[in-house]
Amino acid sequence: MNDTLANTEKKTAYILTLPAVLLVFSIILFPIFANIWISFKEVELKDIRIPEPRAKKIIKSISEEPTKIKILYKLRNSSLIQEIRNVSFQDNFPKNFEIENLDPRCSYKKYNLKCEFGNWPAKYKENFQVIFVTNDGSKIDKKKLKSIKPKLDGKSDNILLNTNFTLKNFKKVLFENEFIDLLLTTFYYTFFGTVGSIVFGILTAQMVNQKFYGRTFMRSVLLFPYVAPVVALAYTWELLLDPNSGTLNSLLLNYQIIETPINLLGQKYIEISILGFDFKLRLALTTVIMFEIWRYFPLAFLFILARLQAIPKELYEAADVDGASPFQKFFNITLPQITAVISILFMIRFIWNFNKFEDVFLLTGGASGTRTLPINVYQQGFAISDIGMGSAVSIVIVVLLLMFMFFYFKLLGKRVDDN
Amino acid sequence: MTTKNTILFSLISSFFLIFLISIWKILATLQGLSINSFNIEIIFIFGLLISLAQLGIGDRIKSIYKSIIFSAIFVFCDVYLIQKLPIWYNVGVFLILYFFTNKISKYTFIALKEEHSTQVILFDFLTLFGILFFSFVILFPFYMMLVTSFKTQIALLVNPLDFSINFGQDLKDLFKSYFVIFKSYKFGKYIVISTIVSVGTVIITLLFAIPAAYAVARLNFFGKTFLSTSILIIYMFPAIVLVIPLYTIFSQLGLRNSIEGLLIVYTATTLPVAIYMLQGYFKSIPKELEEAAILDKLSWFGIITKIIIPLSIPAISSVALYVFMIAWNEFLFSLMFLDNPNSFTLSRAIQYLSGDAETPRQYLMAGSVVVTLPVLFIFVYFEKYLVSGLTAGSVKG
Asked: A262 and A213: one domain?
């Protein structure tokens, strides 16, 4: 009895979870494996379109013969690289049409023209022409004729499904294309973006955790950058930072803080001298990181604020009795209480920043030294149209992420053991 | 100790005053006033004088009168020493000074003698400074987005700092950018598409997520732990890694440029979060209710529709709002999958608009306002539900 109950429970559970699991697996897990497959192939954007036989129907009337009509089909293979086998063709005609010159490849039965064109090599083109006469001498309605579309069919290989593999993509990714530079840029972007957003998160959380007028309003405002659409924010920033008529540059010029406009998003390096040391700052990258911090510190703020509000008040009261200063209270009570949240936040933000695509893409498009790995996926796959390369870069991203997670959990595990 | 604290106090408060006045000056400049200098030195001296005078006078005058007197003196000097500006500017300065002197009036010589008063001063001013700084930094871009959408290209070329809105003009001229994007750029259609996609994602996600979350929360089955951990891992997985395979598969299946394609991808990416949030809530519903239902011979379908759903309306609506916001804001997949202007979502349409260098920026900003407003409205209106969900780690970004 109990056994059957457990069995029905199991069955119900599988029925309930199956739709969700199937969908998630087919859209998220399957593509990850597909990525591995594609990354070992030489595929370009144009290859993934399945070759199609196409026909454009052109109707030409023959002068002084209203009962006769010439129909020209411009036949072609849509693919520039692949052959199509056993192309078949079909078109229907009104019931008073007789054909005049029948091509040997075709047959005309019951007002239906059928042709077998055989194999079409890549780039194949042909002008195929037929002439019809009406058998009852009536006029031909060209519009109606045009509205009937011919049907074509054919077989072709799908380049994605064959078993030709190559290591070329990975060779290219790892040894060409300034891989080290790419990796460093991604690392700077991820690391400083993460640390910056956490630092700002701590500051704002500490701030909002105190009592002041308009505190709830402040809490909503602080979350605005996080909930607003990235497209709108990125273009607003671009407008603010524009070197020609952007608000920031105009303001700085107006108050005579700078003499010439700075192209914050379009300049790769800026020379800065501090205490006599000259060094180069990656300007565009820094700006992009600033945007990143601005947009994502609210997440850190929320998590830390939630933790701060859970700290028992008694701890602070006891510290007051002992005569602790505000800074002592912050460093000895608050900070130890939020380290756990910070370490989780660091991991989450690190992983998400590492994969961030939209922000950089919208602000700079990856120009002026802001090309990160995710941007490279897009550029390889869609700008250079090398799908195989794009896939290889995404595999590199996954491997790096898995490595990061492995080391992070190992470190975290060690720390927990030490405690 | 007191001397040191006095110096520190007056220095910090002067810097704070400089900061306040500078922000006011920036805002005034953006209304078209020609202010060419922050006059930091003069304001610094004033700040020092006011804070020292404040300490000196102490409690001898009521603090309201004290504040009014200081503010009036400052405004008077500002008008005669620095430059003459419209009256609203001076009223603003007066209010800022009033706020400032009110804030510093709690510091007296006695307060400065207390233990740790150096740090207390620092902490107080840092908080105050932080609140204003962050409000300014966050709201400024939103403000600029809004005001730019009401300007014209020519007005911005004449004076790139004049963002004042002329409310006297015709409503048609004022909202011209909005009329243009709806008329010439078909934004009405994009709003409809975005709404269909977002609402559709919400409905399908809930349909799939509620049963699955119920199973994870309540039933025992083989692979349950595997399922609940893989939900979290999948949640961490980057979208950029999925783009190329999905693009190739969708191209071959003819799902690109279609609302169905977007719905499938959005649902799959939001499902893990939805299941995770919902199962947490379902676990908190007392089991006894369901046991009674099982005795009444209700099937699982009956349990879910008659007991679980009515009891978890708040959780379900907060999940729905989130999924809506994620789908509405989504950009990466809409960039990859849509290249026919007839099937654009709002985000993709704005990106497409910006691709044309000729597009005047006020149109771009009007579009941005259109895409931002619904989300901010939902967020502010339902903030209570949403904030608790945000800490559950729901919005990915």
From this structure: yes
Contact B397 A226 (CB under 8 A): yes
pLDDT per residue over B353-386, tens digit each? 888 877 888 899 999 999 999 999 988 888 877 7
Q: Where are the alpha helices (DSSP H) in A355-386?
A: 358-363, 373-378
Report yes or no on A236 lying in a domain.
yes
In 3D space, the residue among B23, B145, B327 whose CA is nearest the CA of residue A240 turns out to be B145
Look at residue A225 in the predicted model and tell me its pLDDT: 92
**Structural domain for A141, as ranges:** 51-155
- The pLDDT value recorded for residue B391 is 62
Q: What share of chain A is helix, strand, coil (3-state, %, to 5)?
A: 55, 15, 25
* Alpha-carbon gap: A136 to the closest alpha carbon of chain B (Å): 43
Residue A208 placed within a domain: yes
Nearest to B191 by CA among A129, A329, A229, A354: A229
Looking at the fold, whether A345 and A376 belong to one and the same domain comes out as yes
Q: Residue A361 and residue B332: Cα distance in Å, rounded?
A: 10
DSSP B31: B
Tell me, yes or no, whether A142 and A239 share the same domain: no
Tally of domains within chain A: 2
Burial class (CB in 10 A: 0-12, 13-18, 19+), A216: exposed
Q: To the nearest whole number, what is the mean pLDDT of chain B?
A: 85
Residues 6+ apart with CB under 8 A from B386: B318, B321, B322, B379
**Is residue A135 located within the same domain as residue A75?**
yes
Q: Which CATH number fits domain B179-391: 1.10.10.10, 1.10.3720.10, 3.30.470.20, 1.10.760.10?
A: 1.10.3720.10
Residue A110 lies in a domain: yes
Query: Tokens at residue A267, please?
Result: 């300049």
| A253 occurs within a structural domain | yes
Do A262 and A119 fall into the same domain?
Answer: no
What chain A residue is nearest to B330 in terms of C-alpha separation? A229
CATH number at residue A88: 2.60.40.1170
- Give A-chain residues touching B371 at CB under 8 angstroms: 229, 231-232
Please name the amino acid found at residue A230: V
Residue B397 pLDDT greater than 80, yes or no: no
The owner of tokens 């991203």 is A397
Q: Which residues contact B203 (CB under 8 A, 6 or more apart)?
A: none
Within 10 A of B174 (CB to CB), how many other CB atoms are there? 15
* Helix or strand run (H / E) with residue A120: strand A112-120
All structural domains of chain B with their residue ranges:
2-148, 179-391
Residue B371: CB partners within 8 Å, gap ≥ 6? Answer: A229, A231, A232, B194, B328, B346, B347, B350
- Residues of chain A whose pLDDT is less than 70? 1-3, 137, 159, 177, 413-419
- The label of the residue with tokens 């192309």 reads A87
Q: B157, B174, B156: which is closest to B165 by C-alpha?
A: B174
Judgement on whether residues A311 and A380 belong to the same structural domain of the protein: yes
Contact A387 B212 (CB under 8 A): no
d(Cα A198, Cα A202) in Å, to the nearest integer? Answer: 6
| Surface of B (143-172) touching A: CB under 8 A | 144-145, 148, 156-157, 160-161
Query: Which residues of chain B have a CB within 8 Å of the CB of A29?
Result: 234
In the 8-state DSSP scheme, what is residue A150?
Answer: P
